[in-house]
Amino acid sequence: MSPDNGVHIRRARSEDYDAVMAIGCMYGGRDYLPSLYPKAMSDPDFYPLLAEVKGQVVGFYMNHILDGGLSVMKRAARVHPSFRKMGIMHELSHALDRHAATLRPGLQYLYISATDVIASKVENEYTSVGYEETQRKSIICLDFCIKDLSFSDVKDQVSSVTTLGYDDIKLLLTLEDVLDKFFDSRIIFNNFVGYRCLESNIKHFVDENKEVCVTIASSTKTQDKNTPMAMRDIDMVTFSEWYESEVGLVYVLEIYASEGSSDHSLQAHLWRQVYFIKKLKLCDKGVVKVSYGPNVPEEKVRSYLKEVGISKYSNVSFVDAVLFEKKL
Protein backbone atom coordinates (compact mmCIF):
# COMPACT_ATOMS: atom_id res chain seq x y z
CA MET A 1 0.00 0.00 0.00
CA SER A 2 1.12 3.58 -0.61
CA PRO A 3 -0.38 6.10 1.83
CA ASP A 4 -0.50 9.80 1.06
CA ASN A 5 2.61 10.45 3.14
CA GLY A 6 4.74 8.42 0.74
CA VAL A 7 5.32 5.49 3.10
CA HIS A 8 5.00 2.07 1.50
CA ILE A 9 4.46 -0.96 3.79
CA ARG A 10 5.24 -4.41 2.44
CA ARG A 11 6.32 -7.89 3.50
CA ALA A 12 10.05 -8.12 4.18
CA ARG A 13 12.09 -10.55 2.09
CA SER A 14 15.41 -12.33 2.53
CA GLU A 15 17.08 -10.01 0.02
CA ASP A 16 16.12 -7.00 2.18
CA TYR A 17 18.59 -8.05 4.89
CA ASP A 18 21.24 -5.40 4.21
CA ALA A 19 18.66 -2.64 3.83
CA VAL A 20 16.94 -3.57 7.09
CA MET A 21 20.24 -3.70 8.96
CA ALA A 22 21.12 -0.28 7.52
CA ILE A 23 18.21 1.23 9.45
CA GLY A 24 20.71 1.61 12.27
CA CYS A 25 22.42 0.00 15.24
CA MET A 26 19.91 -1.19 17.83
CA TYR A 27 20.19 -2.07 21.50
CA GLY A 28 23.74 -0.79 21.86
CA GLY A 29 25.08 -3.30 19.34
CA ARG A 30 23.35 -6.23 21.09
CA ASP A 31 20.65 -6.55 18.42
CA TYR A 32 19.20 -10.05 17.98
CA LEU A 33 17.56 -9.37 14.60
CA PRO A 34 20.64 -10.04 12.41
CA SER A 35 20.84 -13.61 13.73
CA LEU A 36 17.06 -14.13 13.73
CA TYR A 37 16.36 -12.56 10.32
CA PRO A 38 16.88 -15.69 8.15
CA LYS A 39 14.46 -17.66 10.32
CA ALA A 40 11.95 -14.81 10.33
CA MET A 41 11.92 -14.91 6.53
CA SER A 42 11.29 -18.66 6.28
CA ASP A 43 9.28 -19.60 9.38
CA PRO A 44 5.50 -19.18 8.88
CA ASP A 45 5.16 -18.18 12.54
CA PHE A 46 6.79 -14.84 11.66
CA TYR A 47 5.13 -12.04 9.73
CA PRO A 48 7.83 -9.40 9.02
CA LEU A 49 7.00 -6.01 7.52
CA LEU A 50 9.14 -3.10 6.40
CA ALA A 51 8.45 0.51 5.52
CA GLU A 52 9.91 2.24 2.47
CA VAL A 53 10.11 5.91 1.55
CA LYS A 54 11.13 6.57 -2.06
CA GLY A 55 12.61 3.09 -2.25
CA GLN A 56 14.66 3.38 0.95
CA VAL A 57 13.92 0.92 3.75
CA VAL A 58 13.29 3.10 6.81
CA GLY A 59 11.37 0.87 9.22
CA PHE A 60 10.83 -2.72 10.32
CA TYR A 61 8.42 -4.54 12.65
CA MET A 62 7.18 -8.12 12.81
CA ASN A 63 4.56 -10.35 14.36
CA HIS A 64 5.63 -13.59 15.99
CA ILE A 65 2.91 -16.22 16.39
CA LEU A 66 3.33 -18.10 19.68
CA ASP A 67 1.52 -20.57 21.93
CA GLY A 68 0.36 -22.69 19.02
CA GLY A 69 -1.57 -19.77 17.56
CA LEU A 70 -3.13 -18.50 20.80
CA SER A 71 -0.85 -15.45 20.95
CA VAL A 72 0.93 -12.94 18.75
CA MET A 73 3.83 -10.77 19.86
CA LYS A 74 5.18 -7.69 18.09
CA ARG A 75 8.99 -7.74 17.92
CA ALA A 76 12.11 -5.99 16.59
CA ALA A 77 10.58 -2.53 16.06
CA ARG A 78 12.85 0.06 14.48
CA VAL A 79 12.72 3.23 12.38
CA HIS A 80 15.66 5.03 10.79
CA PRO A 81 16.64 8.10 12.89
CA SER A 82 16.06 10.46 9.94
CA PHE A 83 12.47 9.26 9.51
CA ARG A 84 11.19 9.23 13.07
CA LYS A 85 8.16 11.23 14.25
CA MET A 86 6.53 10.69 10.86
CA GLY A 87 4.05 8.07 12.04
CA ILE A 88 5.94 5.22 10.36
CA MET A 89 5.97 2.99 13.44
CA HIS A 90 2.23 3.52 13.87
CA GLU A 91 1.63 2.47 10.27
CA LEU A 92 3.73 -0.66 10.72
CA SER A 93 1.94 -1.44 13.97
CA HIS A 94 -1.51 -1.01 12.41
CA ALA A 95 -0.49 -3.28 9.53
CA LEU A 96 0.56 -5.94 12.05
CA ASP A 97 -2.77 -5.52 13.83
CA ARG A 98 -4.56 -6.22 10.56
CA HIS A 99 -2.50 -9.38 10.14
CA ALA A 100 -3.32 -10.47 13.70
CA ALA A 101 -7.02 -9.94 12.99
CA THR A 102 -6.84 -12.61 10.29
CA LEU A 103 -5.82 -15.15 12.95
CA ARG A 104 -9.10 -14.85 14.86
CA PRO A 105 -11.01 -16.58 16.37
CA GLY A 106 -8.12 -18.80 17.52
CA LEU A 107 -6.00 -15.84 18.58
CA GLN A 108 -6.60 -14.93 22.24
CA TYR A 109 -3.67 -12.75 23.35
CA LEU A 110 -1.50 -9.93 22.02
CA TYR A 111 1.89 -9.14 23.55
CA ILE A 112 4.33 -6.24 23.46
CA SER A 113 7.50 -5.94 25.55
CA ALA A 114 9.88 -3.12 26.35
CA THR A 115 12.63 -2.04 28.69
CA ASP A 116 11.51 -0.16 31.79
CA VAL A 117 12.82 3.06 30.21
CA ILE A 118 10.60 2.69 27.14
CA ALA A 119 7.68 1.26 29.12
CA SER A 120 7.51 4.36 31.31
CA LYS A 121 7.01 6.47 28.17
CA VAL A 122 4.47 4.31 26.36
CA GLU A 123 2.52 2.66 29.17
CA ASN A 124 -0.41 5.08 28.91
CA GLU A 125 -0.58 4.51 25.16
CA TYR A 126 -0.58 0.73 25.64
CA THR A 127 -3.16 0.72 28.43
CA SER A 128 -5.45 3.01 26.44
CA VAL A 129 -5.85 0.25 23.84
CA GLY A 130 -6.32 -2.59 26.32
CA TYR A 131 -2.82 -3.78 27.26
CA GLU A 132 -1.88 -4.52 30.87
CA GLU A 133 1.54 -5.10 32.41
CA THR A 134 1.79 -8.78 33.34
CA GLN A 135 5.51 -9.42 33.88
CA ARG A 136 8.52 -7.42 35.04
CA LYS A 137 11.98 -8.92 35.51
CA SER A 138 15.27 -7.39 36.60
CA ILE A 139 18.20 -7.40 34.18
CA ILE A 140 21.92 -6.89 34.57
CA CYS A 141 24.32 -6.73 31.63
CA LEU A 142 28.03 -7.41 32.06
CA ASP A 143 30.84 -7.33 29.49
CA PHE A 144 33.33 -10.17 29.27
CA CYS A 145 36.52 -11.18 27.48
CA ILE A 146 37.15 -14.88 26.96
CA LYS A 147 40.79 -14.51 28.03
CA ASP A 148 39.68 -13.19 31.44
CA LEU A 149 37.40 -16.12 32.29
CA SER A 150 38.76 -18.34 35.07
CA PHE A 151 37.59 -21.88 35.89
CA SER A 152 39.86 -23.34 38.56
CA ASP A 153 37.04 -24.87 40.65
CA VAL A 154 34.15 -24.86 38.20
CA LYS A 155 33.82 -28.53 37.21
CA ASP A 156 32.74 -29.76 40.64
CA GLN A 157 30.15 -27.01 40.87
CA VAL A 158 28.60 -27.44 37.42
CA SER A 159 28.18 -31.21 37.75
CA SER A 160 24.93 -30.63 39.66
CA VAL A 161 23.38 -28.79 36.68
CA THR A 162 21.33 -30.95 34.30
CA THR A 163 20.41 -30.01 30.74
CA LEU A 164 16.83 -30.87 29.79
CA GLY A 165 15.68 -32.29 26.48
CA TYR A 166 12.31 -32.00 24.78
CA ASP A 167 10.65 -34.82 26.72
CA ASP A 168 12.02 -33.51 30.02
CA ILE A 169 10.51 -30.09 29.43
CA LYS A 170 7.25 -31.65 28.27
CA LEU A 171 7.03 -33.49 31.60
CA LEU A 172 7.92 -30.37 33.56
CA LEU A 173 5.11 -28.41 31.89
CA THR A 174 2.53 -30.99 33.02
CA LEU A 175 3.34 -30.61 36.73
CA GLU A 176 1.11 -27.90 38.16
CA ASP A 177 2.97 -27.70 41.48
CA VAL A 178 6.26 -27.14 39.64
CA LEU A 179 4.71 -24.44 37.47
CA ASP A 180 3.32 -22.80 40.61
CA LYS A 181 6.86 -22.53 42.01
CA PHE A 182 8.45 -20.92 38.98
CA PHE A 183 5.78 -19.58 36.62
CA ASP A 184 2.75 -18.72 38.74
CA SER A 185 1.23 -16.67 35.92
CA ARG A 186 1.92 -19.57 33.53
CA ILE A 187 4.08 -17.28 31.40
CA ILE A 188 7.79 -17.85 30.75
CA PHE A 189 9.25 -14.41 30.01
CA ASN A 190 12.57 -14.94 28.24
CA ASN A 191 14.63 -12.26 26.48
CA PHE A 192 11.63 -9.93 26.13
CA VAL A 193 9.36 -12.65 24.70
CA GLY A 194 6.42 -14.11 26.63
CA TYR A 195 5.58 -17.80 26.22
CA ARG A 196 2.68 -19.60 27.84
CA CYS A 197 3.54 -22.91 29.53
CA LEU A 198 2.52 -25.05 26.56
CA GLU A 199 4.18 -27.94 24.75
CA SER A 200 3.94 -26.01 21.47
CA ASN A 201 6.52 -23.56 22.83
CA ILE A 202 9.21 -26.11 23.67
CA LYS A 203 10.72 -25.55 20.22
CA HIS A 204 11.51 -22.01 21.37
CA PHE A 205 13.43 -23.27 24.42
CA VAL A 206 15.51 -26.07 22.88
CA ASP A 207 17.28 -25.18 19.65
CA GLU A 208 20.76 -24.99 18.17
CA ASN A 209 21.39 -21.82 20.20
CA LYS A 210 19.10 -22.39 23.19
CA GLU A 211 18.90 -24.74 26.15
CA VAL A 212 17.19 -25.32 29.48
CA CYS A 213 19.01 -26.40 32.65
CA VAL A 214 17.87 -27.35 36.15
CA THR A 215 19.23 -28.20 39.56
CA ILE A 216 17.41 -30.62 41.82
CA ALA A 217 17.28 -30.27 45.60
CA SER A 218 19.91 -32.35 47.38
CA SER A 219 17.31 -34.67 48.92
CA THR A 220 16.50 -36.11 45.49
CA LYS A 221 19.75 -35.48 43.65
CA THR A 222 20.33 -39.18 43.04
CA GLN A 223 16.94 -39.72 41.45
CA ASP A 224 16.29 -39.84 37.74
CA LYS A 225 15.38 -36.31 36.64
CA ASN A 226 12.76 -37.79 34.30
CA THR A 227 10.50 -38.87 37.17
CA PRO A 228 7.75 -36.56 38.42
CA MET A 229 9.16 -36.88 41.95
CA ALA A 230 12.56 -35.51 40.93
CA MET A 231 10.98 -32.81 38.77
CA ARG A 232 8.95 -31.66 41.76
CA ASP A 233 12.17 -31.09 43.69
CA ILE A 234 13.75 -28.79 41.11
CA ASP A 235 14.87 -25.65 42.91
CA MET A 236 16.13 -23.60 39.95
CA VAL A 237 15.50 -23.46 36.20
CA THR A 238 17.58 -21.49 33.71
CA PHE A 239 16.85 -20.76 30.07
CA SER A 240 19.75 -19.61 27.92
CA GLU A 241 20.25 -18.47 24.36
CA TRP A 242 23.16 -16.96 22.50
CA TYR A 243 23.86 -15.13 19.27
CA GLU A 244 26.59 -13.09 17.65
CA SER A 245 26.26 -9.31 17.41
CA GLU A 246 28.26 -6.15 16.82
CA VAL A 247 29.62 -6.28 20.38
CA GLY A 248 30.54 -9.96 20.12
CA LEU A 249 28.65 -12.84 21.68
CA VAL A 250 25.42 -11.97 23.47
CA TYR A 251 24.62 -14.66 26.03
CA VAL A 252 21.16 -14.36 27.57
CA LEU A 253 20.45 -16.17 30.83
CA GLU A 254 16.99 -16.27 32.41
CA ILE A 255 16.91 -17.50 36.02
CA TYR A 256 13.76 -18.85 37.68
CA ALA A 257 14.25 -19.79 41.33
CA SER A 258 11.88 -21.27 43.88
CA GLU A 259 11.46 -19.58 47.22
CA GLY A 260 14.34 -20.65 49.44
CA SER A 261 16.46 -22.01 46.59
CA SER A 262 20.08 -22.55 47.55
CA ASP A 263 23.01 -20.26 46.84
CA HIS A 264 24.83 -23.36 45.65
CA SER A 265 22.29 -23.83 42.86
CA LEU A 266 22.63 -20.22 41.76
CA GLN A 267 26.41 -20.46 41.75
CA ALA A 268 26.31 -23.75 39.84
CA HIS A 269 23.99 -22.40 37.15
CA LEU A 270 26.00 -19.21 36.65
CA TRP A 271 29.34 -20.97 36.55
CA ARG A 272 28.02 -23.67 34.24
CA GLN A 273 26.83 -21.01 31.77
CA VAL A 274 30.16 -19.15 31.83
CA TYR A 275 31.99 -22.45 31.33
CA PHE A 276 29.72 -23.10 28.34
CA ILE A 277 30.42 -19.63 26.90
CA LYS A 278 34.11 -20.47 26.76
CA LYS A 279 33.42 -23.86 25.17
CA LEU A 280 31.35 -22.23 22.40
CA LYS A 281 34.47 -20.52 20.97
CA LEU A 282 32.32 -18.13 18.92
CA CYS A 283 33.75 -14.73 19.90
CA ASP A 284 36.64 -13.33 21.91
CA LYS A 285 34.34 -11.02 23.86
CA GLY A 286 30.71 -10.20 24.45
CA VAL A 287 27.94 -9.46 26.91
CA VAL A 288 26.20 -11.64 29.48
CA LYS A 289 22.61 -10.51 30.03
CA VAL A 290 21.12 -12.04 33.17
CA SER A 291 17.41 -11.69 33.95
CA TYR A 292 15.86 -12.88 37.19
CA GLY A 293 12.89 -12.66 39.52
CA PRO A 294 12.42 -11.79 43.21
CA ASN A 295 13.86 -15.06 44.58
CA VAL A 296 17.30 -14.35 43.07
CA PRO A 297 19.55 -11.89 44.97
CA GLU A 298 21.33 -9.56 42.55
CA GLU A 299 24.37 -9.22 44.79
CA LYS A 300 24.89 -13.00 44.63
CA VAL A 301 24.63 -12.99 40.83
CA ARG A 302 27.29 -10.30 40.60
CA SER A 303 29.51 -11.98 43.18
CA TYR A 304 29.47 -15.42 41.54
CA LEU A 305 30.11 -13.97 38.08
CA LYS A 306 32.97 -11.86 39.41
CA GLU A 307 34.61 -15.00 40.80
CA VAL A 308 34.92 -16.38 37.25
CA GLY A 309 36.07 -13.14 35.63
CA ILE A 310 32.90 -11.22 34.69
CA SER A 311 32.41 -7.93 36.53
CA LYS A 312 32.43 -5.00 34.09
CA TYR A 313 29.09 -3.24 33.71
CA SER A 314 27.75 -2.87 30.17
CA ASN A 315 26.66 0.57 29.02
CA VAL A 316 22.87 0.16 29.28
CA SER A 317 20.19 2.48 30.62
CA PHE A 318 17.56 -0.10 31.56
CA VAL A 319 17.19 -2.33 34.62
CA ASP A 320 13.94 -4.21 33.88
CA ALA A 321 12.19 -6.10 31.09
CA VAL A 322 8.44 -5.47 30.96
CA LEU A 323 5.74 -7.56 29.26
CA PHE A 324 2.33 -6.16 28.31
CA GLU A 325 -0.62 -8.42 27.48
CA LYS A 326 -3.94 -7.74 25.79
CA LYS A 327 -6.72 -10.30 26.07
CA LEU A 328 -8.99 -10.48 23.04
From TrEMBL:
The record's gene field reads 106053904
What name has this protein been given in UniProt? N-acetyltransferase domain-containing protein
Source organism per entry reads Biomphalaria glabrata (Bloodfluke planorb)
Q: Name one GO molecular function term.
A: acyltransferase activity, transferring groups other than amino-acyl groups
Query: Which residues belong to any copy of the N-acetyltransferase domain?
Result: 7-152
InterPro entries cross-referenced by the UniProt entry: Acyl_CoA_acyltransferase, GNAT_dom
Which SUPFAM superfamilies would you find in this protein's record?
Answer: Acyl-CoA N-acyltransferases (Nat) (SSF55729)
